[in-house]
């Protein structure tokens, strides 16, 4: 005859055993359900040409008085404008930015003041900007030393015009990848479970060139992630 405590222990052990079977079965079902879908990526790329460009640069001037620097700056601006006008730009394309004065307190300083002047040139004519970049040495030869400049930056302003087509293309490529997987796994492709559009990014035409902003030609790229049910 089993005692009361022994019976309770046996019942508890039996319930614990049955619970572990139920939990294990549930975990297996969940795992099986998760395996019934596939996640794939679809890529779309376009080679594009920039539609606008800007070049921001600085140059410095020295003088013993503010008036000396202003006179020197008028001469420098005249040379800079002549250079850009010769390349086909208009004066509206050339914008003067800030003018910063620093007092030189070093014993070795030849002048009392040094000024830094910023200038921005903007155009939608990409060939003009490329020509300017190639011939910038002409300014150096005239005594205008450009500093703090990484060269022109190039932009693509019509991205919204090609976004829908590229997005559709990336989704189509994702579906082709999913169909190929379903074919080789003897499955049938079902409905979309979820999708992530990703984001559009610009890349240099040659992936080893570095920052894409410095090149007129670029690659516009999007990767879409889509999950499909498998039947």
TrEMBL record:
A Pfam family annotated for this UniProt entry: SIMPL
Example GO biological process: DNA damage response
Superkingdom field: Bacteria
Entries under InterPro entries matching the protein: 26kDa_periplasmic_antigen, SIMPL/DUF541, UCP029033
Protein name, per record: SIMPL domain-containing protein
Organism, as annotated: Borreliella californiensis
């Amino acid at each position: 005859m089993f005692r009361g405590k022994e019976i309770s222990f046996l019942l508890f052990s039996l319930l614990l055993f049955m619970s572990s079977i139920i939990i294990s079965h549930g975990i297996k079902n969940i795992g099986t359900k998760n395996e019934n879908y596939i996640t794939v990526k679809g890529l779309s790329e376009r080679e594009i040409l920039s539609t606008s460009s800007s070049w921001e640069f600085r140059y410095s001037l020295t003088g013993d008085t503010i008036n000396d620097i202003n006179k020197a700056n008028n001469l420098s601006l005249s040379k800079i404008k002549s250079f850009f006008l010769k390349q086909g730009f208009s004066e509206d394309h050339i914008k003067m930015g800030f003018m910063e004065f620093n007092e030189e307190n070093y014993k070795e300083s030849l002048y009392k003041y040094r000024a830094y002047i910023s200038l921005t040139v903007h155009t939608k004519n990409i060939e003009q900007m490329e020509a300017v970049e190639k011939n910038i040495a002409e300014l150096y030869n005239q005594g205008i030393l450009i500093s703090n400049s990484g060269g022109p930056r190039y932009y693509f302003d019509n991205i919204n015009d090609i976004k829908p087509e590229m997005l559709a293309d990336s989704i189509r490529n994702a579906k082709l990848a999913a169909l190929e997987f379903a074919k080789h796994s003897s499955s049938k492709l079902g409905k979309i479970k979820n999708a992530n559009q990703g984001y559009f990014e610009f890349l240099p035409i040659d992936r080893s060139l570095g920052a894409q902003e410095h090149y007129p030609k670029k690659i516009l790229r999007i990767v879409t992630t889509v999950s499909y049910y498998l039947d």
